[in-house]
């Protein structure tokens, strides 16, 4: 496993870390036993950074992480998120009382005295013009409830505005072979300001693992079923906002590029690690074998220039018209 600096925090985190949404909920049935096995496998492989949120299974994901931390001696840094408990997303909802209550809930779930990294969970765009929210976060740091804070965003504009706030340490954004725009304008700016970048949805909700096909079905409580058209949250969070059929066709083209012994998931994650502005990818994983597969990406050889060009061309021709202008 290789490690990269996380913003200006002084921490170095595994370049392939772990996304803990699926072990909380919204991805069909998951047994806690499997989730704990997956988390333990991640730590065995050298993962020292986990991304979760208060709303993932209403605290379930955070509580599983607390259980993991209790049973392991390694240092494990946890990034959680707040804001999605609001019934309706408004800037006013991100007030001192709510933020403090959400942080207190996460502290209880994670069984710790201070949150390592708190991220605002895709708040409304207007929030980035509200310095008072960031002042509340600064106060939470002063009070010792959180060590650092960052944001999780949907759009590039939000990311660019967020890093104008001097104490924003990290930006979490969708970045993968099917979502390439962050590399254009945002990455150079973030790098300049030493802001950590967490690449989320790195496998396009499983599309880029090459394991899904036209006949794949998803349970009713899996967002790949219930949010296919953005019914519950931003459609970009499901399959990266790419039409399922078009995505599958593009995946078949990527499959032809795989070097011997490299899985599709590893290839997709390696592509992300080719961008040095990225701190880490945070693939989700519900089972230990997925985690093992994904973590191996960290030690793979860099992708060839030809393969990078081909992925770019594939994006420009097939994917870009669907996503580039939206996020
Ligand atoms: N708004 C936000 O802030 C936000 C939104 C989305 C995600 N996130 C964060 O980003 C993390 C990653 O994104 P994501 O979980 O949405 O999507 P993802 O990492 O692109 O896809 C994860 C899914 O792909 C499948 N998978 C993973 N590794 C595999 C492997 N090696 N082989 C085959 N299948 C594999 C698993 O589902 P199946 O086994 O069911 O196919 C897994 O749940 C989340 O866990 C969360 O921490 C944050």
What does the model show?
The chain has 327 residues and is α/β, with parallel strands linked by helices. Helix content is 36%, strand content 14%. The protein contains eleven helices and ten strands. It has helices at 32-44, 60-71, 96-110, 131-142, 156-162, 186-192, 223-226, 244-255, 264-273, 288-295, 305-323; strands spanning 3-5, 12-14, 18-19, 49-51, 77-82, 115-121, 146-152, 168-174, 196-200, 280-281. It has an eight-stranded parallel β-sheet with strand order 3-4-5-6-7-8-9-10, covered by helices on one side. Strands 1-2 form a two-stranded antiparallel ribbon. Strand 5, helix 3 (96-110) and strand 6 (115-121) form a beta-alpha-beta unit. Helix 1 crosses helix 2 (60-71) and helix 8 (244-255) packs antiparallel against helix 11 (305-323). It starts with a strand and ends with a helix.
Structure described in brief:
By secondary structure, the protein is of the alpha/beta class.
Topology:
Elements: E1 3-5, E2 12-14, E3 18-19, H1 32-44, E4 49-51, H2 60-71, E5 77-82, H3 96-110, E6 115-121, H4 131-142, E7 146-152, H5 156-162, E8 168-174, H6 186-192, E9 196-200, H7 223-226, H8 244-255, H9 264-273, E10 280-281, H10 288-295, H11 305-323
Parallel strand pairs: 3-4, 4-5, 5-6, 6-7, 7-8, 8-9, 9-10
Antiparallel strand pairs: 1-2
Helix pairs in contact: 1-2, 1-10, 8-11
The structure holds NADP nicotinamide-adenine-dinucleotide phosphate.
């Amino acid at each position: 496993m290789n490690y990269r600096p996380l913003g200006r925090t002084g921490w170095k985190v595994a370049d392939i870390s772990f996304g803990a949404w699926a072990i909380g909920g919204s991805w069909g049935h998951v047994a806690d036993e499997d989730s704990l096995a997956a988390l333990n496998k991640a730590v065995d492989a050298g993962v020292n950074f986990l991304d979760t949120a208060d709303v993932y299974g209403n605290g379930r994901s955070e509580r599983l992480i607390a259980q993991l931390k209790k049973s392991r001696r390694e240092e494990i840094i946890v990034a959680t998120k707040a804001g999605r408990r609001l019934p309706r997303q408004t800037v006013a909802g991100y007030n001192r009382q709510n933020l403090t209550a959400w942080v207190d809930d996460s502290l209880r779930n994670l069984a710790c005295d201070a949150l390592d990294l708190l991220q605002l969970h895709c708040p409304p765009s207007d929030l980035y013009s509200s310095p008072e929210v960031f002042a509340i976060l600064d106060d939470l740091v002063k009070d010792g409830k959180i060590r650092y804070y960052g944001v999780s965003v949907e759009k590039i504009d939000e990311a660019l505005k967020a890093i104008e706030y001097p104490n924003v340490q990290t930006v979490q954004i969708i970045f993968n072979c099917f979502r390439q725009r962050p590399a254009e304008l945002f990455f150079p700016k973030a790098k300049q300001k030493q802001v950590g970048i967490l690449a989320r949805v790195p496998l396009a909700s499983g599309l880029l693992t090459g394991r899904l096909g036209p006949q794949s079905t998803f349970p009713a409580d899996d967002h790949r079923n219930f949010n296919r058209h953005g019914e519950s949250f931003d459609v970009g969070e499901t399959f990266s906002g790419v039409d399922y059929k078009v995505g599958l066709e593009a995946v078949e083209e990527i499959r032809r590029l795989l070097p011997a012994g490299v899985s599709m998931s590893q290839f997709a994650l390696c592509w992300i690690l080719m961008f040095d502005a990225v701190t880490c990818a945070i693939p989700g994983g519900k089972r230990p074998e997925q985690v093992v597969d994904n973590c191996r990406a960290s030690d793979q050889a860099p992708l060839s220039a030809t393969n990078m060009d081909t992925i770019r061309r594939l994006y420009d021709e097939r994917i870009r018209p669907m996503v580039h202008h939206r996020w």
